[in-house]
Amino acid sequence: MNKKTAVNKPVELDETLEISDVAGLLLQLKSVAETGGDIVLDGSQIKVIDTANLQLLVALFREMKQHGTRIDWQQPSDTLCKTAVLLGLEQHICLSPA
User: Fold this and answer.
1) What are phi and psi of 97, to 5 degrees?
2) Is the pLDDT of residue 20 over 90?
3) SS3 14
4) Would the N or C end of the chain have less CB density within 10 A of its end CB?
5) Taking a C-beta distance cutoff of 8 angstroms, is the pair 43, 80 a contact?
6) What gap in Å lies between CA 25 and CA 44, rounded to an integer?
7) Per-residue pLDDT tens digits for 82-96
8) What are the DSSP calls for 21-34, one per residue?
9) 17-50 burial, b for 16+ CB within 10 Å, e for fewer?
10) Residue 87 · residue 51 · CB < 8 Å
11) What letter does residue 82 receive in the DSSP assignment?
12) Model confidence at 3, in pLDDT bands (50, 70, 90)?
């Protein structure tokens, strides 16, 4: 399997993603992106997510698209979907309205 078609283990996002969590999430996502291959985000546990973290996800989706890397969701929580819709970011992070 070459690097571009490999699929990484899903990245499990924390239950609470607030501004104090952005730096840690950025490091985690950079580490996964550097391995190459497709990225799958498990958003099933998210109960709280703020604008800063959603902005980080928007940037990640844009960067991965520019590099031709596929990025998908595995079970995004209702909270994640509703918050993204409320902020008008759902299309930027490939989520359908909840």
Assistant:
1) -55, 140
2) yes
3) coil
4) N
5) yes
6) 16
7) 999 999 999 999 997
8) GHHHHHHHHHHHHH
9) beeebeeebeeebeebbeeebebbbbbbebeebb
10) yes
11) H
12) very low
